[in-house]
Amino acid sequence: MGKYFGTDGFRGEANVNLTVExxxxxxxxxxxxxxxxxxxxxxxxxxxxxxxxxxEYSLVSGLTASGADVFLLxxxxxxxxxxxxxxxxxxxxxxxxxxxxxxxDNGIKVLNxxxxxLEAEIEEKIEAYxxxxxxxxxxxxxxxxxxxxxxAAGRNRYIGYLISIATRSFKDKKVGLDCAxxxxxxxxxxxxxxxxxxxxxxxxEPDGTNINLGCGSTHIxxxxxxVVEHGLDVGFAYDGDADRCLAVDEHGNKIDGxxxxxxxxxxxxxxxQLPLNTIVTTVMSNMGLYQALEKAGIRYEKTPVGDKxxxxxxxxxxxxxxxxxxxxxxxxxxxxxxxGILTSLKIMEAMLEQKQSLASLAAPVTIFPKxxxxxxxxxxxxxxxxxxxxxxxxxxxxxxxxxxxILFRASGTEPLVRVMVxxxxxxxxxxxxxxxxxxxxxxxxxxxxx
Length: 450
Hints:
seven-stranded mixed beta sheet; 15 helices; 38% helix; 450 residues; single chain
């Protein structure tokens, strides 16, 4: 992980540790780097947070000053940027978003020409340029200065692509959508309406400060109530940039990424469309998912947390389905990144083709109780290296045996360490999480607990 770029781009509080100067410098470098042998073409999308416009203009200034032509998708989803980059041969794409974070945060996600997350070596070069460790980049002059193009048509082509993926009409299906007051607000309803669904939408009125605020995939409770109160067949909740999706069944139960992987994996297997009979998960996936996959005769592999790692594992091995409990799901036949709206379409396909409700499709999975606590610390690297903390983690693991597991890791984007215990009972979860946190507290590492 770099100085500025984490597992999901360059993220921070707008104009605090991610500034307009940073955005300008990122643009300057990318415009020069991709334009060394030809005139670079870069496409940019953004979510609805207030600072996204500011960062868009800063990136455009840097890119065009280095000679790149910039194509603006305006408010759109991260997967739509990925789609446009790879389908229309752009040199790279940029998404301005902090995903599920609060509105005052923002981020710069750079995608390579294949629509995948940018290679680490290029991120390192950008960081070196930001820190003044490389030679200054020349300005473009005269006719070599870049131009800016309104490219809303690219977003419309992406909508058409999503619609083309559906295998059946959604006629007479009552579907709820929680757009998180984010990027999905401009796309999701159009897709479901075009496919014939009776679409009910909440949280699709962004004002720049309400993105993810008590809504979306990180706050799914309101959608759960909404589905039940309106007698809907299913509900889908997206995050700020719509690369995540969680679902709600007809009874109001939450269907998380693990259950989505099971439902879609089992369906694809039945259709002979699950490459190598394998699903890729992260270490955060629930023990209940693995037990259910084993009963269904489906193999699985694990990666570190982050859809970046899931995607890499899938590409290296030719796997077709992978994802995270948080709702980043990758269907490699259709996309190279997590795509929340695509995920909701594939869930609809599994329901319609098998003529079953979402609740019945998820029923074979028994999820183990899990407790995850985020601890805000002064130095996460010091906590991860502390022998007493690691001994407490190891002791908890030994005590649980085959009745549970513990996962201890640092956040890739925030000054947090995460302590997660999954066990047979909620009491066990609480006991062992607190035992580890007590040691972290006693050693004086805690800045603030969440």
